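Priority: medium. Attachment 1 of 2:
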């Protein structure tokens, strides 16, 4: 992905393009597998990019809240994956290798209505993700 793409995305999200933030997002996007803040930190350090761990945590939080990244928590470990889909979408995570696939949202109107009726809340948004086992892992399982 080129710099222009990031600039556009950041502008669209009304994010100031600070240098560290840019580096962090670039590094996250170039990874096929989810990364922990610590792994991102190490990757950047190996490339002689000095970005503080605090800055990484903050940026990842921000990316997640803007729908630019997906946060995967497993026990006490937290990893992030950059989102390739720009519009509202969902994720499925392989419980064996941790790979993430993104897919468009199916109509959840009925479900939202049901949630609204049974809780009395006005539903404004939803975050849904699935857990599963990917094809590769299914094949290699005994
Ligand atoms: Zn995503
Ligand atoms: Zn897998
Ligand atoms: Zn949805």
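Attachment 2 of 2:
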């Amino acid at each position: 992905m080129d710099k222009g793409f990031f600039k556009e995305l950041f502008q669209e999200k009304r994010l100031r393009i600070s240098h560290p933030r840019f580096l962090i997002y670039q590094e996250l996007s170039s990874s096929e597998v989810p990364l922990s803040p610590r792994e991102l930190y190490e990757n950047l350090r190996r490339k002689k990019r000095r970005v503080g761990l605090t800055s990484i945590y903050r940026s990842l939080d921000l990316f997640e809240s803007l729908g630019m990244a997906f946060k995967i928590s497993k026990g006490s470990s937290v990893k992030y994956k950059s989102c390739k889909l720009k519009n509202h979408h969902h994720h499925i995570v392989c419980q064996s290798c941790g790979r993430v696939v993104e897919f468009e949202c199916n109509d959840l109107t009925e479900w939202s209505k049901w949630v609204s009726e049974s809780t009395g809340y006005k539903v404004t948004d939803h975050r849904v993700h699935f857990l599963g086992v990917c094809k590769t892992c299914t094949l290699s399982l005994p």
